[in-house]
Amino acid sequence: MKIKGNMTLKIIIALVVGIIVGSIFNLYQDASWVKWFNQYVFNVIGQIFLNLIFMLVVPVVFVSIVLGVVGVGDPKHLGSIGLKTLGFFIVTTALAITLAMCLALVFKPGAGKADLMNSDDVKKYALEQKQKEEAAKAEGTSVNQTFDQTLINLIPKNPVLAMSETNMLQVITFAIFIGIGMIALREKVSGVKLLFEQTNDILMFIVTAIMQYFAPIGTFGLVATAFTSAGFGAIKQLGMYFFVVLLALFLHMILVYGGAIKFLAKRSPIWFFKGFAPAMTVGFSSSSSNATLPISLECAQDNLGVRKEISSFVQPLGATINMDGTAIMQGVATIFIAQISGVDLTIMQMVMVVAIAVIASIGTAGVPGVGLVMLAMVLTSVGLNPAAIGIILGIDRLLDMTRTAINISGDAACAVVINEREKQKLAKNVA
After folding, report:
1. Is 285 within 8 Å of 393 (Cβ atoms)?
2. Against a cut of 0.90, is the pTM above it?
3. At a CB cut-off of 8 Å and minimum separation 6, what does 329 contact?
4. What is the pLDDT of residues 329-344, one digit of tens each?
């Protein structure tokens, strides 16, 4: 089933109405009736929609990765696609944070705002982080994962536990092993392959049904909740920071993703963004790449014509490790915090920020609150106070919505590029 254009329009209308209603309610956010509406109407509608799509995330990822691996067939070819995917993600992430830092240096969002470093938000964030670190130390765990821990944690001790905890990297690893096993056994497991294909059909039918009947009202609920709680009031003090992040996200989407579609995939960027619009709107409202994954897969396969085996491998991996939108936030936030701290970063320090952000986007995948964990790592590496993150927390929820739409677009752009390059390669071999 294909997500039609009129459904995209309905979701966009619901999104706009949610912003308007939420912004109006935000003006009266201390009123008891607004709190009641926000908690028992907007929030309930939004959370039911989120739960409906989260319900499908693990089964969709597991089944689609298995079918993707089996569909590619040759493990060497799978490795080739994997390397191309990883290369695309690394390059676009590096471009994202570089663009963000350049724009922040030009627009200077932190100029004349040194007083923000003495705000209560900084003190509150520092206290919360100290409490988290003490709790983690008491439990014998760590707030951050080291590189060796990340590598070890790629392999699940218990696949069922990994699925129940929605540990996507472990789910993907397990699915790849199952797929390789099915390739090796071939006809012996043809019945299992058929079962996976039929399960995938059922899951995609449910995804389409949720989109058709619940996406608009669910989108309205999520967006209305976000804007009732945050509104535009938080933007006033950090207006230039907010503007620079949005500008960087927009330019990255148009120049990098649009350029990749135009020059690498030889397709129209307008065709790409139009076909992927339903997933982008759901990503915006949900603020979760993983939650949006079932819709992202369907849009890529049905609207953009990406082969299932490529889409099923590239996009779940991207939802876990490809975070261009988050990298952009880190780039702007690092320069912003340096400016309000009165610190001039050297060229080498800025290069270090780019390198750490690119590595961290893969190395810290699966960590709760990953964007802020990564930002704290980046700030510490160049001698800036990570407690300054507290300053931007007030508007981060609104920016997170936009970042998610960019993140999933990058995954889809990668899938389209690899799909079209594979088609071109096949055409040359046939000729």
Report:
1. no
2. no
3. 100, 245, 371, 375, 396, 399, 403
4. 999 999 999 999 889 9
